[in-house]
Amino acid sequence: MTIKTVATRPFEGQKPGTSGLRKKVSVFQQPHYLENFVQSIFDALGGIAGKTLVLGGDGRYHNREAVQIILKMAAANGAARVLVGQGGLLSTPAVSAVIRKYGTSGGIVLSASHNPGGPDGDFGIKYNIDNGGPAPEKVTEAIYARSLQISEYRIIDAPDVDIDVIGDSTLAGMQVAVIDPVSDYAELMASLFDFAAIRAWFAAGHTACFDAMHAISGPYAIRLLEQTLGAPRGTVINGTPLPDFGGGHPDPNPAYATELIDRMSAADAPDFGGASDGDADRNMIVGRNLVVSPSDSLAILAANATLVPAYAGGLKGVARSMPTSCAVDAVAKQLGIAAYETPTGWKFFGNLLDAGKVTLCGEESYGTGSDHVREKDGLWAVLCWLNLLAATGKTVNRIVEEHWARFGRHFYSRHDFEGIATERADALMAALRGKLATLPGQTLHGLRVVSADDFAYTDPIDGSVSTKQGVRVVFDGGSRVVYRLSGTGTEGATLRVYLERYQPDSAQHGVPTQQALLDLIAISRELADIAGHTGLTEPTVVT
Ligand code: G6P
Ligand code: ZN
């Protein structure tokens, strides 16, 4: 086996976004494209000689090819050992758990998360550091900078490694350990939750439906829910991971997880519904005819955390991304714990978790998690909810209604305008930023603006500053309209408009969400002149 040094030239645009480098599969299939980026990661880390890495992905199209390339490049770059999930599979939270359990230097996740897969779909790659979490911006910037300078990469000339059989082998002196993708993660879950109570809940005849959306959460959910906790077979639907996710869009929201939504509104609906995305880090929680908003889910888990064994001693603090509703802040206030507001992107929670400032974190984009790993964790959220149901004997709907009665309801919705030409989206944001100084004090549709700014964040642990993280306009009574451009798309730009209204009066809690937000919706369209800039008069997705 020989180490080849291959001459290459930089590709434009290998800049990691909110969560790694995501591009069309055809982009990744260009000769040297993946190799350049992988070598840029290794170089930006100061080399990987003697290091141990974790490697796995969500099984989407191009996963297996990418795993072979990365193994051969890791060997050529002198890595000591790579732990790779059997079949090249590992969910994102499982990568995080494995990095932490075995104390490796980091890991590589192959996924484009909730973006569609298949030959015409998306592929993605990101690097996670030794705490198990996504690399912080200073690392992703160094990777990008390196990608613009790269002139060669190293790779072993060798036959493919057998990644389908669990066990150890060597590749040009590097140890390759093929591991069961589920075991370490399942063991961690068993250490956090009251499995006996959940088992008893199922044994008493309660039912659940978990939609794996043909993505990587399937094997994890089948092992945990059906094989460990005694949920009836068939509880997990769409449980076999497919390279193209069955042609679907593996994003657990009401617009895409329609099979689950239909089941949960049927006359014989199960007691609990859950879903997860392509790489199993997102979650949606559903009761009968009720989708729990991710912001509410975070708040409810925070308010009830002590019912879960791992959090029985109370929470250190909580964190949410800026566009996530302030529901969890209300809980933190009552509990007397700190609540942090960070930019969008799980990586911003890493320092707070490492420093022991927070225990639970969440985002409006269907992400919830805790300090057990450094990624959001879809199945963890599902198990948390099952633990609450088992511990209280209440239904999902009752838990939600009681929460609103106690803390008030934060009505919340996100309106997405997809497929906008990048220049137009940029122009819209620039125009909006230009107006910010004049907004405070103005009254729009009867609502007085109390503040308007472009969110900037100074990390309280390392002092790093992130600017331009979204425009927020706050009204009397705490209602908010927030605008930002998505950082995870691969085609054009997506404008996200986040709408929030606080309603303390229980008599108003049953109003349909879109109705409760009507004036804010009108304000959001006019203020940014969305139709004028984009030609779109209605959002393409509402969650
Ligand atoms: C990924 C990240 C999340 C983030 C989300 C935002 O899922 O892991 O932490 O909230 O992207 O996506 P956006 O498209 O709004 O930038
Ligand atoms: Zn994901």
List keywords for this structure.
32% helix; 3 domains; Alpha-D-Glucose-1,6-Bisphosphate, Chain A, domain 3; binds zinc ion; 26% strand; 543 residues; binds 6-O-phosphono-alpha-D-glucopyranose; TATA-Binding Protein; alpha/beta; seven-stranded antiparallel β-sheet; seven-stranded mixed β-sheet; globular
- Helicity, in percent? 25-40%
Number of strands: 27
- Going across the biggest sheet, name each strand in turn: 2-6-5-3-4-9-8
Q: What ligands are attached or bound here?
A: 6-O-phosphono-alpha-D-glucopyranose, zinc ion
CATH class of the largest domain: Alpha Beta
User: CATH-wise, what's the superfamily of the largest domain?
Assistant: Alpha-D-Glucose-1,6-Bisphosphate, subunit A, domain 3
The CATH architecture assignment of the largest domain turns out to be: 3-Layer(aba) Sandwich
Strand content: 25-35%
For the largest beta-sheet, the strand count, sense and barrel status come to: 7 strands, mixed
What is the distance, rounded to the nearest whole angstrom, between the alpha carbons of the first and last residues? 52 Å
Number of domains: 3
Total of DSSP H or I helical runs spanning 4+ residues = 18
Write down the overall geometry: globular
Mean pLDDT: 96
Q: How big is the Rg?
A: 23 Å
Pfam families: PGM1_C_vert_fung, PGM_PMM_I, PGM_PMM_II, PGM_PMM_III
Family: Belongs to the phosphohexose mutase family.
Catalytic activity: alpha-D-glucose 1-phosphate = alpha-D-glucose 6-phosphate
Cofactor: Mg(2+)
